[in-house]
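User: Here's a structure from my thesis project, written as structure tokens. My advisor, Dr. K., wants to see whether a designed sequence matches the one we expressed. Can you design one independently, without my sequence as a hint?
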């Protein structure tokens, strides 16, 4: 009995053990299946991620490619501004044109503002602004390293640096018709000699005008205007003038030095010695001298006589003191005034100038000034030689002048009792315009008076009569 019970319990235990083993095995078999699912899921997720990543990469790549395409899409080429007239080629910058130039080429630059530093290394190249300095601005400097180079027609702004133009051992370089400003030196010599340099008709608005001239033998420097704050010209030991004359006299006789600005400074003795701008305008009555005409006019008193030495003067003159005589020492052939003269007072005399009006309105204006005498002058390059303005200028005397202007004597309606004899009219548009107020000193017919007492060049403009309200040319008898 006991034995049977034992066997029964033992068998039950075996059965339970077997069942437990089966359960454990079953769970163990299920676990790998779950792992497989997890692995599969991970693979799917990974694949998805890769797809997503690939998609993102592709999208990014497309975007980047598109961007790159946009970035690398060629921008329109810059318009050419510098033109090589010999090679018939144009360039987007001045520097490119200069670097591509061959000996003897001419490069013409369009109007505009350019920021470049230019080095000229090829002999005989000409670089010029097409419309001149007023329209062609270069912010930078030009270094001339070769012979026979020309720089013409620029305003060169040195951007407050050392120089506008450097002549670096360059012979026969020509620098003309430029304006230099905002730099230490307008033109500077450097290195070996720059022999036979030609510096003409430039305007220097710099601290120092022409510097390091010790490297400039046989220098031509004429027609320049110096308005420098520290030094107009520094004379070094090697400098000489092209005509062999004294270099100080040469500069002062052939150039314009703005009143109140810096003079020539002589370094040849080893000491900086300022050379005062010589008095070229003399008040003979007061026995005083002046560097400019306007200075002398402003200091004049009634009845004074001012005499101007031969030379070229660039000034606009306003005469406000009665009875002042302004005349030249050697006549119109040797005394050029670039500008105009306005007579605002009675009994003034203007005599012996060539007056170049610089293509402006007039050479002389009579502005309500009576008994003004204008004689022995040459008028050119202006709209009107002599113009009346404002109130009447009665009893004016206009004699022995040459009119090479568009209009000779204009606005004569303000000129009663006019004396006009010995004048030569070579005008393009109108020799004399007769206004309603004009009359002549002998009360004769005005048109006939002009033709009888003056010379009118054949083929040039005649007298024109406006007194009827219509411009009527009056034929030469």
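Assistant: Designed independently from the structure alone:
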């Amino acid at each position: 009995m006991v034995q049977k019970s034992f066997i029964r319990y033992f068998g039950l235990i075996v059965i339970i053990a077997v069942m437990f083993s089966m359960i454990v095995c079953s769970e163990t078999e299920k676990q790998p299946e779950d792992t497989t699912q997890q692995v599969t899921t991970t693979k799917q997720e990974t694949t998805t991620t890769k797809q997503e990543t690939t998609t993102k990469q592709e999208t990014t790549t497309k975007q980047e490619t598109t961007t790159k395409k946009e970035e690398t899409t060629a921008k329109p080429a810059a318009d050419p501004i510098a033109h090589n007239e010999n090679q018939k080629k144009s360039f987007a910058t001045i520097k490119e044109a200069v670097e591509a130039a061959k000996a003897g080429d001419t490069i013409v630059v369009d109007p505009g503002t350019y920021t470049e530093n230019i080095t000229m290394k090829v002999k005989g190249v000409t670089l010029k602004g097409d419309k001149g300095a007023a329209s062609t601005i270069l912010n930078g400097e030009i270094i001339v390293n070769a012979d026979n180079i020309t720089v013409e027609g620029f305003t060169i702004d040195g951007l407050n640096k050392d120089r506008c133009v450097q002549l670096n051992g360059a012979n026969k370089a020509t620098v003309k018709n430029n304006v230099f400003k905002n730099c230490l030196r307008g033109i500077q010599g450097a290195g070996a000699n720059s022999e036979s340099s030609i510096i003409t008709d430039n305007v220097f608005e710099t601290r120092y005008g022409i510097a390091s001239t010790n490297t400039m033998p046989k220098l031509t420097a004429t027609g320049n205007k110096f308005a420098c704050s520290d030094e107009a010209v520094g004379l070094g030991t090697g400098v000489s003038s092209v005509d062999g004359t004294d270099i100080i006299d040469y500069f002062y006789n052939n150039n314009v030095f703005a009143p109140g600005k810096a003079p020539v400074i002589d370094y040849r003795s080893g000491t900086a010695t300022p050379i005062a701008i010589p008095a070229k305008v003399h008040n003979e009555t007061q026995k005083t001298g002046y560097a400019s005409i306007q200075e002398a006019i402003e200091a004049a008193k009634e009845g004074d006589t001012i005499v101007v030495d031969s030379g070229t003067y660039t000034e606009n003159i306003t005469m406000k003191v009665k009875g002042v005589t302004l005349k030249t020492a050697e006549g119109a052939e040797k005394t050029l005034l670039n500008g105009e003269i306005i007579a605002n007072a009675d009994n003034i005399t203007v005599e012996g100038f060539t007056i170049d009006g610089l293509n402006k309105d007039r050479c002389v204006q009579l502005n309500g000034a009576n008994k003004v005498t204008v004689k022995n002058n040459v008028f050119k390059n202006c709209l009107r030689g002599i113009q009346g303005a404002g109130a009447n200028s009665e009893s004016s005397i206009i004699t022995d002048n040459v009119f090479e202007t568009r209009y000779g004597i204009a606005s004569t309606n303000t000129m009663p009792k006019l004396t006009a004899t010995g004048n030569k009219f070579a005008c393009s548009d109108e020799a004399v315009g007769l206004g309603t107020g004009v009359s002549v000193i002998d009360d004769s017919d005005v048109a006939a008076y002009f033709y009888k007492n003056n010379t009118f060049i054949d083929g040039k403009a005649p007298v024109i009569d406006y007194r009827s309200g219509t411009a009527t040319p009056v034929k030469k008898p």
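When you compare it with your expressed construct, this may help: Helices lie at 2-72, 94-100, 247-254, 293-299, 446-453.
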